[in-house]
UniProtKB/TrEMBL annotation:
An example Gene Ontology biological process: glutathione metabolic process
Domain of life: Eukaryota
EC number: 1.20.4.2, 1.8.5.1, 2.5.1.18
Sorted UniProt keywords: Oxidoreductase, Transferase
Family annotation (Pfam families): GST_C_3, GST_N_2
PROSITE patterns, per database record: GST_CTER, GST_NTER
Role of this protein: Exhibits glutathione-dependent thiol transferase activity. Has high dehydroascorbate reductase activity and may contribute to the recycling of ascorbic acid. Participates in the biotransformation of inorganic arsenic and reduces monomethylarsonic acid (MMA).
Limits of the GST C-terminal domain: 105-225
Domain GST N-terminal: 21-100
Lineage, highest ranks first: Eukaryota, Metazoa, Chordata, Craniata, Vertebrata
Protein name: Glutathione S-transferase omega
Keyword Cell inner membrane listed: no
Family annotation (SUPFAM superfamilies): GST C-terminal domain-like (SSF47616), Thioredoxin-like (SSF52833)
GO MF assignments: glutathione dehydrogenase (ascorbate) activity; glutathione transferase activity; methylarsonate reductase activity
């Protein structure tokens, strides 16, 4: 699995064509949205290479692939380009059906997508609260709102009486939500799960997953990157 660990920025040469029998991921090491796609690639055992992008100073050739300038982006050997994290993960599920991560039942599949919609309303809090906190602003109202959202998630999991959100093994929805929980310690938001015991147990179980273990960073590395990010000079190559 070839990877360009160091990020490529403006003025960099575009990478060569995607090797046959592989897929390429354009990513950023610390991006939670790109981590969703990385988790799915790893869990499904898909051969891929990774090109990391400097999101502060994006190469022109990258913007030609995704005019939105965001990661993750997938590229096939035939030059097809797919972006937006839920769409890239659905694409991988369809094209590499060997290990299924989405349920076959249409209603169960729809339930996962609805839950993801609910969760997407919570993700902004993971950025807003640490940013305001760093400026010395009062975050108590936002923290209460996040707690409420996490309690709702907890109720969803408790009602299922299963280990994970899609049953007793990890499915797509678990991987789609995980990156923000992995960063809770770094964000100083772990206390927001105090009223959510099943959710806490879920995070412990998720930490045992081989794909999560394989690609996660330790909290010191996260802290180093997020410090540079909050100071307005993100060091995408932090720790390399």
């Amino acid at each position: 699995m070839a990877s360009s660990e160091k990020c490529l920025g403006k003025g960099s040469s575009p990478p060569g064509p995607v090797p046959k029998g592989m897929i390429r991921l354009y990513s950023m090491r610390f991006c939670p949205f790109a981590q969703r796609t990385r988790l799915v690639l790893h869990a499904k055992g898909i051969k891929h290479d990774t090109i990391n992008i400097d999101l502060k100073d994006k190469p022109d050739w990258f913007l030609m692939k995704n005019p939105l300038g965001l990661v993750p982006v997938l590229e096939t050997p035939g030059g097809q380009v797919i972006y937006e994290s839920p769409i890239t993960c659905d694409y991988l599920e369809d094209v590499y059906p060997e290990k299924k991560l989405l349920p076959a039942d249409p209603f169960e599949k729809a339930q996962q997508k609805m839950l993801l919609e609910h969760f997407s309303k919570a993700t902004p809090y993971f950025y807003k609260i640490p940013m305001m906190s760093r400026k010395g602003e009062d975050t108590s109202t936002l923290e209460e709102e996040l707690k409420e959202k996490l309690i709702k998630l907890n109720e969803n999991l408790a009602s299922k009486k299963t280990k994970y959100f899609g049953g007793d093994s990890i499915t797509m929805i678990d991987y789609m939500m995980w990156p923000w929980f992995e960063r809770m310690d770094t964000s100083g938001l772990k206390h927001c799960m105090d009223g959510a015991p099943e959710l806490k147990n879920w995070t412990e179980r998720m930490l045992e997953d081989p794909s999560i273990k394989a690609i996660m960073f330790d909290s010191e590395t996260y802290k180093g990157f997020y410090k540079s990010y909050q100071e307005g000079k993100p060091d995408y190559d932090y720790g390399l």
